[in-house]
Amino acid sequence: MATPSHARPSENLRSAHGAHQATKSSANFHGIDFNCTDGTPEAPTTKDFDPAETQDEIIKWFGSHPDGEAPALRLIVAKLPCPHSDRTSWKPEIPFRQDILEYAIWQHSAYTNLLPSRGGGCAALLDEPVCFVLQTPVDLGPFCSLAMSKRGIVVKGIFLYRASLSADGEAYFDPLRMMENETVISGWRSTGMQIIALPIAVAKSHALYITRELDDLASMLSTIEAELSSHTIGTRTEALTPLTRTLQTTTSRLLAAERRINFQTSLLSAIETVTSSHKRNTPTWPPLAPLKNNLESWSHDLSTIPRRVSAAQGTIQTLIQHHNEALNLDIATSSHRMMEAALKDNATMKTIAIMTMIFLPSTAVASFFSMGMFDWGASGGRGGAEGQVVSKWLWIFFVIAVPLTGLVIGLWWVWLKRHERRIGRMVGDGSAGDGGVGTEAAGGARTMSDDGFRDEVEMERFCAGGKANDFR
């Protein structure tokens, strides 16, 4: 007996999917009889089951003998609906009662153990009667599951399938379409070798899906590579976001394809197990060489596609890095220009201050001696007040001017200290998580209060947060 490569032991027979599972209106049931294809081939005969019929009618038909001249396979087929929401969490369920499952395969635990496995699996049970079970991986692609065993000269079983959840929604595992070109030799019925006909058809359809999936992934990568080759260093990062998402989707689909390739390898191995055990009594059987050749081609794709994905991701990271470097260079250039402009403004202010210092003393002297307190035309030879150049009321000017000047300077000093403390608090609060930038800014403000309006302090305060300008 060949053990399933992906099947896991079950603690129970999952009877919840047996007697308590009534016929679901969401599943489409029908029966199919496949006849031998040599001699005078007969077309398959089908029987549709009314949803209102009980599963007693299904088991009654299932247990009867086919009416054809050379019947080979009898299947109960259930087409499962595609979920409209939460597609990634979809799990297969057996829509048949336990007695139907037990009639389809003697050792039904080998089949029910496959259901929890999202990776799928298969097994060829060679004890009499010969049995075959398989289940494809559960993902967004097409799905099928079957359990068959030899009943006299006829193989009977159940077959579940679901269309792909991808955009095309193609039903790869429709049994009537799969078996159209398959060979079923009448001499196989004595040994039950016709049991491999449907698994081989499944393997061919599954190989077609894998090939199309890998070709689609390769085409997507070619498109991404062409787009990346047309991008320059100045490309905005927003334009690269769709490419990154496509690469993530490609990686997920590639992992799903790799899991299906592993299942395909196990399926071909299980088929070979059956054919090798009946080789002496079997006149001919379909060759598996073309399907094995696909494995070599897929192996090449599995090795090259990840490298192409990594290369594309590296190119995107390089473009993003170059873009950030160019952006940082622009910021540095703008900062340098702002600094030059600030220094030019400071130079202008210095020039104004110097010119003020040059002319202010003479202006003050001229203003002082031009007051009415001085009479430069008075005669110095006369006695009395009439001959005095300086008025006796000159002291009033000093009494008012000196205190007023001190008051103005004092108010300015108080306002300056409060202003510096506010700046220090705001810069410190805004830079608490930046390693003490606020403390350095406050220190810079203190230096300014001690040394005056120096250019270095102004630039330090500007770079610390740019908030000082709000208070000027």
Automatic annotation (TrEMBL):
InterPro entries from the UniProt entry: MgTranspt_CorA/ZnTranspt_ZntB
Keywords: Membrane, Transmembrane, Transmembrane helix
Ranges where the record places region Disordered: 1-22
Gene Ontology MF terms in the entry: metal ion transmembrane transporter activity
Entry GO CC: membrane
Ranges that cross the membrane: 352-374, 394-416
Protein name: Uncharacterized protein
Biological source species: Meristemomyces frigidus
